[in-house]
Amino acid sequence: MAGCLMSSASASRRGPLAAVAAVARLKNALDQLGSATEGFSSNASPSINWVFLGPPGVGKGTYASRVAKAFGVPHIATGDLIRAEMSTGSEMGAQAERLLQSTELGLVLNLSLREEVLVEKCMGRRLCRHCGKGYNVAHIYLPPSADGRYPEIVMPPLSPPPQCAPHLETRADDREEVIRHRLEVYKQEAAPVEDYFRRHGLLVDFEITAGIPETLPRLMPLLHAYAGRQQQQQEEQEQQGQQQQATASI
Do residues 125 and 170 touch, judged by C-beta distance below 8 A? Predict the structure, then answer.
């Protein structure tokens, strides 16, 4: 299958070195996408051009990368990174802009998680200054709400190995007041985006209630079903086109 998965990601809060590395990953992903889609015709499998939306800390980049690997397509982290490249007029920014303008989206997956869980999850993030790997020390449990509106949420910690434990540090922006401010900004900026995709019938809401091992088995059947419907729609469009050509030649 050709296509790509895009998820919003902010490079500015991770420092200049991380931003440089992210730019390199973006260039590599764009190159992969060009190679992956080269030579594909209308008879090929449907393109998996999907976007993952969600507030900071919901895990959209993690889920998008896992899903991209499962479907065999590149994962491109967009958001601040691509906007910055476009504003500079760089060739890579122009390439990304052409890609986004020419891509026909098939699905916009809107990931959500209760705000109190997001805050606790972000505050539990830790980075090993020795190896650079990320962990999460938060052990999250919320019972279902009495009115039945919210389900039970269970998220065990992603604990570091013994060799990393002494080297853990908290990122400067993973403080409660900063996290809550970022969530408020996201709500304001995301609302019109969500409304736009919802009006066009592309937005699908997906609530996260557990960790990645428990959530992926819920998510993957949904995405496989959407991929199957995309393929069916493509086949129907091809049949209609063939019928129109046959009628025109009579």
Answer: yes
